[in-house]
Design brief:
The protein is mainly beta. The chain has one domain: N-terminal domain of TfIIb (Single Sheet). It is 9% helix and 24% strand. Strands 1, 2, 3, 4 and 5 form a 5-stranded antiparallel sheet that branches. The longest helix has 6 residues, at 55-60. The mean pLDDT is 84. The structure holds zinc ion. Zinc ion is lined by residues 11, 13-14, 16, 29, 31-32.
Length: 70
């Protein structure tokens, strides 16, 4: 996949940034815990095609912690 696409692709649900998971060939939205498939190098940006991340998968990825504990 052309990584430059990542600059313009956002999650169709929350308009947030996506993380390219090269091994899985998926684009992951951490906010929604969804993984959008990449087929033949083309990201499939439809929520009904996306896969729910498991809790374990979500834990192992870097998370954007938007709540600051201070
Ligand atoms: Zn999202």
């Amino acid at each position: 996949m052309d990584l430059r696409l990542l600059d313009i692709l956002v999650c169709p649900l929350c308009k947030g940034p996506l993380v390219y998971e090269k091994a899985a060939q998926e684009l992951v939205c951490k906010a929604d815990k969804l993984a959008y498939p990449i087929r033949d190098g083309i990201p499939i940006m439809w929520a009904d095609q996306a896969r729910d991340l498991t809790l374990a998968e979500n834990d192992t990825k870097d998370t954007f912690n938007q709540t600051e504990e201070k």
